[in-house]
Amino acid sequence: MDATLSPEMTEDLTIPRFLGCDAIMKMMKQFALFFNAGWSSTYIHVDATETLFAQITGQRQWILIPPTHGKYLHTDDFNYHAGISPVEPDAVDLIKFPNISKVDIYNITLYEGDIIYVPEGWYHQVRTMGGPPNMAMAIFVNYLLCSEGGDTPDGAEAATTACIARREATPKEITCKERMEDMPMHEFIAQYSYINPDAIDVALEFESPDGKLRTYNSTLKSGFEMPLLGFGVRGQPTEKAKISTAHALRLQYSLFDTDPDDESEEILGTILASTPDVKREDVFIVVKVHPRNLGREKTIDSVKRSLTRLKTDYIDLVLIKAPSCDGMKFKCEADDNRGTWKESWESLEELIEGGKIRSLGVSNFKMSQLRKLIGFAKFPLSVVQSNFNLYNRKTKLRQFCKDNGIAFMAHGLMGVLETENGTRESPLLSHPKVDLAAKKYRTTPGTILIRWALSQNVTVTPPSTNLDHIAFNRHAIVLDIADSPWAIDMLTKNFPHVD
């Protein structure tokens, strides 16, 4: 696992003597701390920066390959600009890669206290040895970007040549106007803020001024703010949901999506009530009205039940889960007295007037139903939730929402499908293009799907019982894609989908 240094960590970091130069500091792009239990490895890849890598504990074995031999690490149909070689070091396919024997390999082992310098464009694979813990720190310097697309010619050999030419054109010397060797990093930030290296911006953007992990909100049509990224409490086994929800709250999630058909409301309410340092106004709670409860009285009873289970006196957002019952997803028992979604909406408006609800929305509605709703609603339709993922873009529905100032919220983002034998799988999480983007940004495929959705201005609340995934998902909103946007653009433009 690797993470950007937080501002607190800079108090423990001293600028090495050979880096204590204003010209060098301006070129720094990222500080990263690597830590794991040992005995892990990377793919053969190339970075778009020069890298200084220091081993703190344990050991790391490096396999280094010069840029001029990068052309031997790809097949003709491989996208060079991805920066990741498909060669499997432990099982090289000589039929697929017949020129691999031409590659020069430098094998180096870093021990505690060792530092390696890796120029931009050098392919490398890294294996950790020893631990736990195995810890190292990297400083990424000076993006040349010649291996990241742009004006680079197509083809691995041409791209390698372009990289070498650009590298040779860089100045061979730099001039230091100010020196700050052996200075604690936090002092450098305070005294030389005008130098403003990108690496410091990356570290600071994860936190807001009050020291909390940064949250990004959208303003709803109701006037209230809703976080763009949340946690789905819904659909989890009870005991696992208790653990995952408490973990999400510790990770400073503030948007929680519940479901009336499970224990998610009760679980969230109990956890919030037992966490005195979290104020009610610091969280945004989403509640749904199941179609079995359509109609005036049943809708009011459903919301009152949610208020009781959540142990709160108001709900931030109530969604009508579906406009009617069906025989599959929204099964309901027979009831000749069941009301309509229009009656439910009018009941929810009464609850807004009574201060029990702040914002209203609907889920799984057709555009014709949305137009009808907008025509009679006294209070604005703030949110539309619908199935949305890389395969199913809902382009027309999202454009309708945009035109009417309505926030669009996704469900089904991970594209999970139920197989014939009853298991649940996600073709999206194992798709090569999603996997490639995840490797590029050093994160998980799920985090990539979330970051892509956020780039489309879609609010997401993915559920998970995996504590590591919950942490990765939380950081999706601050995942920096600015320096290599092609990986996200690839998913938007070159991924098979329906609109």
UniProtKB/TrEMBL annotation:
A GO molecular-function descriptor: oxidoreductase activity
Signal sequence extent: none
Pfam families given in the database record: Aldo_ket_red, Cupin_8
Annotated JmjC domain residues: 4-158
Record-linked SUPFAM superfamilies: Clavaminate synthase-like (SSF51197), NAD(P)-linked oxidoreductase (SSF51430)
The protein's name: NAD(P)H-dependent D-xylose reductase-like
The species this protein was found in: Lingula anatina
Gene that encodes it: LOC106181656
